Amino acid sequence: MSKLLEKRTSLSSFSDLTDMQVTGGFQMSGLLLKKPMGRPSNKWSKRFFVLKDSFMFYYGETEKKIFDTKIFNIHPKGVIPLGDCMIEEATLPNLPYGIRILPANADKSDASALYLGADDEDSKQEWIRAIEQSSKITTLNAELSETMIRSLQEQLISVSKERQELFEKFIKVSEEFGAERAKTEELEAFNFQLAEEKVRIQMFVDELQDTQETIKTYIGLTKLNVNECNL
Which residue range or ranges hold the PH domain (predicted)? Predict the structure, then answer.
């Protein structure tokens, strides 16, 4: 079994979804040759690849015609996570424009690597640059998301603490000088503003946490039943 996190999948967890309209967000797409992984083989298959964020989706060769109509099929033959992968040029027999992708923390053997073949030197270099950039997205997004969540959680705690302290202060003042109507209205207005701010920050925190969990779940799916797709 290959250590490359390449999942043979129809993405069953997303079976309730349908094909989506292509509206952008794809770094690159095109036809590449793909060599089976995990065992010696001289067989090469032409596949249509779509590079999106930190993943490479691949399909049968005919998928290109569908993609060109601005439809993105969310049920690929396979998904290749690129987070922190090593990408390099490779020259193989009868394949002068090869690309070698080695997953993070994998051994250096060919059994762990994915080999792709481009049509020419320009195409090869373009794919390498795009894959290298995409391989950094997962780590950067995760770190940024976690940092933002921590910061917002700290803000939420601070606002809640400040709200409580000021509320207690106004109560004390009201008790000392009498519950004047003006002070009561001022207290209520201030308390309402703080409550709104707390809700706003909490909603933002929840949204970021949902996004982070979606990313982690999607990455986790690619780690389940890791098998080479020899289609």
Answer: 25-136
Residue among 231, 165, 203, 224 nearest 1 (CA): 224
79-129 pLDDT, tens per residue?
888 877 888 898 887 788 999 998 776 666 666 788 999 999 999 999 999
Query: Token match 């060769």: residue?
Result: 61
Please write down the HEC assignment for all residues of the chain: CCCCCCEECCCHHHCCCCCEECCCCCCEEEEEEECCCCCCCCCCEEEEEEEECCEEEEEECCHHHHHCCCEECCCCCEEEECCCCEEEEEEECCEEEEEEEECCCCCCCHHHCEEEECCCHHHHHHHHHHHHHHCCHHHHHHHHHHHHHHHHHHHHHHHHHHHHHHHHHHHHHHHHHCCCHHHHHHHHHHHHHHHHHHHHHHHHHHHHHHHHHHHHHHHHHCCCCECCCCC
Tokens encoding 81: 């996570």
Provide the whole-model pTM: 0.52
Q: In whole angstroms, how far apart are CA 214 and each of 65, 145, 164, 204, 209?
A: 30, 12, 34, 15, 9
Q: Which of 227, 223, 2 is nearest to 111 (CA)?
A: 2
What confidence tens digit (pLDDT) does each residue in 10-65 have? 333 333 333 433 334 678 899 999 987 766 677 889 999 998 878 888 999 888 88
